[in-house]
Write a structure and sequence with these properties.
476 residues, alpha/beta, Arylsulfatase, C-terminal domain, eleven-stranded mixed β-sheet
């Protein structure tokens, strides 16, 4: 009887979607440099995250969810559903550079607009700051935020101060000093709530890539000195507050059961920042590396009535899967061309399967493939840097492949390659195939990045030449 009911449900769902029934609202909260161990649901104890604790209790923890080692490539992957090398985004863009996410790529916002969604980006964009690359040219109806990392200050010729620009749509709204950044989480949150209220009568996509908790650390006044983990913990607590306000707004507007909320991070913690960096918890490595601590990020998904409360999923998934998942939930499908790497993970979210929809997960650092994971097994095919700013430790400075069982030992210490030559050979074949396709110096299927001829800074500066940052840096 159960099978019959499920079949009938599927038959009923398809015509409703075909008839234009609105899909769910999608909210993606994307934190900057938050490590696997930085929030309560993933083991943090020094900073309090009651709203994220509640979100995990009402939704699902995804414990094998992957981003990328550094900022720009991680955002490009989320926006396009592609590994960075496929779309020629290897690492980090600087202000006033000529390169950016190619406007020819199809972003999650453009795909959702095709299904009638209102779209807005609030926060750190960081896939190109020239007009052709801005959010409003990449599928977002509106944009509010700092277009790159908050530590990329340049001296304003107008004020003589080192600042970053805060933009509204395509114009600079304000120039922010480090001190002024203390208001940024509150402003982003208010903008997000305003967008939700304005869009409540139609489906919407809210992409909220926070500036927090990237250095310089700038918690709001109401949060300073409140955590047991210094100003870093204070800013984590403010991010938790912001998330709580968004969840409360959805509840107030009776949108909870029509909204999928994803909370995740762009990469692991910036360990060399010391007390201003985060924690990877039990994972090895940090930001800038392809160890688990560099790319496995704390992730929670919540959708009351659809995602089982208090559930946990350890299947491999990641930011590249968010685009195809959102499109599927809206009733559509991603066309076969241009190729993307992500897959629809809604069956994982809904508890219909525990198997990843992808054959494997590939760990790129820049254009170089450094590791591949399938199930519990991770094969490192080259020596791996421990984290940004630190080199390769002796146990990783081995030219031959290293094999780790992540289910048995999450900290990647014991090399099991000699004991499982069959698994090594299988994963080597996968790595070789993907490198041939999009990695290394001579890939067969890499698409170009975006380029502009005469890049300019967004505001007049006294210490930077426009176009100085020509290309994304893999280690930036």
């Amino acid at each position: 009887m159960k099978l019959i009911l499920l079949s009938l449900g599927g038959l009923l769902w398809a015509p409703l979607q075909a008839a234009g029934t609105a899909g769910p609202n999608i909210v993606i909260i994307f934190i900057d440099d938050m490590g696997y161990g930085d929030i309560g649901p993933f083991g943090a104890t020094k900073q309090r995250t009651p709203n994220l604790d509640r979100m995990a209790g009402e939704g699902m923890k995804l414990t094998s969810f992957y981003a990328a080692p550094v900022c720009s490539v991680s955002r490009a992957q989320l926006l396009t559903g592609c590994y960075g090398p496929r779309i020629s985004v290897p690492g980090v863009y600087g202000p006033g550079g000529r390169s950016g996410l190619n406007p020819a790529e199809h972003t999650i916002a453009e795909r959702m607009q095709e299904h009638g969604y209102a779209t807005m980006c609030i926060g750190k964009w960081h896939v190109g700051d020239q007009p052709a690359f801005l959010p409003t040219r990449q599928g977002f109806d509106h944009y509010f935020g700092i277009p790159y990392s908050n530590d990329m200050q340049k001296k304003s010729t107008e004020t003589g101060l080192s600042v970053v620009p805060q933009m509204r749509d395509e114009k600079v709204d304000e120039l922010l000093t480090d001190q002024a950044q203390g208001h940024i989480v509150e402003r982003y949150t208010n903008e997000a709530i305003g967008f939700i209220r304005e869009s409540k009568d139609k489906p919407f996509l809210l992409y909220l890539p926070h500036t927090a908790v990237h250095t310089p650390i700038a918690p709001g006044e109401a949060f300073r000195g409140k955590s047991a983990n210094g100003r870093f913990g204070d800013w984590v607590e403010e991010v938790d507050w912001s998330t709580g306000r968004i969840l409360d707004t959805l509840r107030e507007l009776k949108l909870e059961e029509r909204t999928l909320v994803i909370f995740t991070s762009d990469n692991g913690p910036w360990l060399i920042k010391g007390n201003d960096g985060g924690s990877a918890g039990p994972l090895r490595g940090g930001k800038g590396s392809t160890w688990e601590g560099g790319v496995r990020v704390p992730t929670i998904a919540r959708w009351p009535g659809k995602i089982a409360p208090g559930s946990v999923c350890d299947a491999v998934a990641g930011t590249i899967d968010l685009l195809p998942t959102a499109v599927a939930l809206a009733g559509g499908s991603v066309p076969p061309e241009p190729v993307i790497d992500g897959r629809d993970i809604s069956p994982l979210l809904f508890g219909k399967t525990t198997e990843s929809p992808r054959e494997a997960h590939y760990y790129f650092r820049g254009y170089n493939l450094e590791a591949v994971r399938q199930g519990a097994w991770k094969l490192a095919v080259v020596p791996q840097h421990e984290t940004m700013g630190k080199g390769v430790l002796p146990d990783a400075n081995i030219k031959t492949p290293r094999l780790y069982n992540l289910d048995a030992e999450i900290g990647e210490k014991t090399n099991l390659a000699d004991q499982h030559p069959d698994i090594v050979a299988k994963l080597q074949a996968l790595a070789g195939k993907m490198t041939e396709e999009i990695g290394g110096p001579s890939p067969k299927a890499r698409r170009p990045d975006g380029q502009v001829a005469n890049p300019k800074m967004l505001y007049p500066t006294g210490n930077a030449k426009p176009g100085a940052a020509k290309n994304a840096k893999a280690d930036g």
